[in-house]
Amino acid sequence: MLGFHKIPTVFEYEDFVSCGQSVPYVRLIGESWPMTKERSYFEATALKHQHSLSPKHVPEVYHFDRTMSLIGMRYIEPPHIILRRGLIAGIEYPLLAEHMAEFMANTLFYTSLLYLTTTQHKNAVAEFCANVEICRLTEQVVFSDPYKISEFNRWTSPYLDTDTEAVRNDNNLKLEVAELKFCEKTQALIHGDLHTSSVMVTQDSTQVIDPEFAFYGPMGFDIGAFLGNLFLAYFAQDGHADQGNDRKSYKVWITDTISGTWNLFHKKFTSLWDKHKEGPGEAFLYAIYNNVELWELVKQKYMTELFHDSLGFAAAKMIRRIVGVAHVEDFESITDLVKRADCERRALDFAKMLMKKRRNFNTITDVISAAQ
């Protein structure tokens, strides 16, 4: 269904869902921070490709006008709401972990060298390399600005002044962040901005939207972004608790969703890999890795590295949402600044620890235990 439809929920949301148009600047900042409208081409291209790989969880694009930077796609009808708003409201989504694991497994595996030939992969990388402005912006706001004095940074001042300064002065943290910069790591086509405001949900439907930051990069960036935003929601729950609802059971649901997302992703991703191990993918040629023991070792090593990458990116995403330019409503909607800062501080301390010690974790259960 085409047209300019705004999601009519109890929560106001600024983006048009069935018809979107890019503006030539960063919407959060305004015209003082210009950005190319060409990103709409990459958003439309990513949506089309991701829909073909995960049609249940990505809306179909019906029309794209490159001149007008206009995308027309399937209207995501009520009662779908933005996931972040649902998390703030304390709504449980029983299929969320299953759906997000399926989306990430399909879109990441089928655009990687585990499935594609080198020629196919390089051609796809070359196309998305032109989205260079978005890559530069992503690296700036995620891996650079939070760790230095920047005019765009903000935090819950004065309560987090000392904590923010500590981030800028943490040399070990900076060394770990530097390892995550992804200029030349082109594993798969990633959404690039897979936070909980880029997902629309009902009890039985999950729709991933807004991949304007799409590019070929590290798989863990998408996985970590989603997990990191769930952890932000987890730490924010105490700020939304009241006498009628202490949010403790909801925090358990969030951690179960974090655990389920990674574990189901691991299962689905490796199942796809096993299914196509004799296929065209050139990362691990079957003629070389057809020994059963070696095959299991390859998968174990690959998934362990992906797990640790994902934890690092989750931590980076959390830090930037607390002391960087763009914050999250999970915390911002907590009106008591002391209570908000307390929630943010615990999230920030966890993220810093996770960034520096991510390789010490073997399971997602261990990570969740460290957050509690």
Automatic annotation (TrEMBL):
Q: Tell me, how does this one assemble?
A: Homodimer.
The major lineage groups are: Eukaryota, Viridiplantae, Streptophyta, Embryophyta, Tracheophyta
Cite the Aminoglycoside phosphotransferase domain residue spans from the record: 37-229
EC number annotated for this UniProt entry: 2.7.1.100
One Pfam match, given by its short name, reads APH
Top-level EC class as recorded in UniProt: transferase
Organism superkingdom: Eukaryota
Query: What are the entry keywords?
Result: ATP-binding, Kinase, Nucleotide-binding, Transferase
Query: What name is this protein filed under?
Result: S-methyl-5-thioribose kinase
